[in-house]
Amino acid sequence: MAAAAARRGSSLLSRCLLSRPSAAASPAVPSALRRADGTQGLLPGILQRFSTAAVAEEPISPPVQVNYTQLLIDGKFVDSASGKTFPTLDPRTGELIAHVAEGDAEDINRAVHAARKAFDEGPWPKMTAYERSRILLRFADLIEKHNDEIAALETWDNGKPYVQAANIEVPMVARLMRYYAGWADKIHGLVVPADGPHHVQVLHEPIGVAGQIIPWNFPLLMFAWKVGPALACGNTVVLKTAEQTPLSALFASKLLHEAGLPDGVVNVVSGFGPTAGAALASHMDVDKIAFTGSTDTGKVVLELAARSNLKSVTLELGGKSPFIIMDDADVDHAVELAHFALFFNQGQCCCAGSRTFVHERIYDEFVEKAKARALKRVVGDPFKNGVEQGPQIDDEQFNKILRYIKYGVDSGANLVTGGDRLGDKGYYIQPTIFSDVQDNMRIAQEEIFGPVQSILKFNDLNEVIKRANASQYGLAAGVFTNNLNTANTLTRALRVGTVWVNCFDVFDAAIPFGGYKQSGIGREKGIDSLKNYLQVKAVVTPIKNAAWL
To answer: Which one of 149, 154, 243, 316 is the catalytic residue?
Structure first.
């Protein structure tokens, strides 16, 4: 299994939040939408052009069982203090997968107490960095050993294609853990010269108890992005999972303890934002909070952190990433890459290339070919071979996306293809494309987080730079050109945290990820992520009769 996982791809990717999903299984959604030709409702035969058959088939039985549904506190799986549970649902059907313990403020208190005791009195921060590294390496081995089980849980709970989870995301978790294991014994301070007879040390110390809130779109990857650097630096953790996808983090945390992690070092509380999430962000004994999710909720987390004990905050938030295609592009290649940039993971990516800017000279050709590619996209049961797109996460997100499609139609954008649900069960949506999109339309300004591509036209480099930057977000961007000077101009002008040139969603353990503006604070992954979990201390000692200074 380990060898097979090592051969799998590692280029990948990164939401959350805090509201309770409805338990409705199959929302009925009206389809009276205006098409490009001005007609209303569904065009005859339009559903047959998408993979309706795959959606209509009986769902495949997941090849895994759910064994962990309780909270993990102080090394033990326990019920919530209230005894309450909540349902986690299969997005393919809206039906129950399992009842999961619902943590609230009392459970956060219990978890923080365990993490504080483990940090102040336990072996973890006093363990040699090499020993911490060995535990993380053993954990990576166990992730590989259980690759297929974890991938099946992720697909079942989230709806992403199983091949994506098994061949890309779970192997990336193992890679990330090995990356941070490598850092554990290479975190060191400095000895700096002073203007006088003093010995000056600069120490990098663990920050203490780290609170972490992860999203539902990449649950296990975000677990690794946050837990990995925190543990490498010697901290303890209280992690709140997204209420939509609690299962994979509980399974992974069990493997962490199997790898030798001491009790209380990682605690996992499943629950909802207004209760568990707010309690964690405002807890007086939490030293640091890291959150991935929406910008609006990120602001709430930041306020709660400031109003409590002014804890350190890292935020990875929303995006409305421009994908800029110049007139020298190979149109066929550009269409495929822009399609991937938007539709990957059902469009549920904070860095999705959701504003596709295309030069006017190739605009019409691009739109026609983008339409043809969308119509070929295979939508269906994510456990089925060959499926590219599974269901959206839940009915709340499903209905939100359909509302945005209606906003696009009502604002005068041209609905090229899609625009409706697929099938009558679960949360499947047709791959949707709008052309003639204007900058002032909501579909061009707001994060949709779904399979909706907005194609905008431009005619000048300076114009597209100005328009691409005219956003509250600054998470990522894509540039597609054969001209090196054009690429260099764009990469320096775009106010975003990541620019992909002639590629998209290339993620690596060493590449930092984070945003400008309202897309967040701080960086995940790479050496920069370690700074989130370290304190800097200066120690100054007088030196008498120094032989040198």
So the answer is: 316
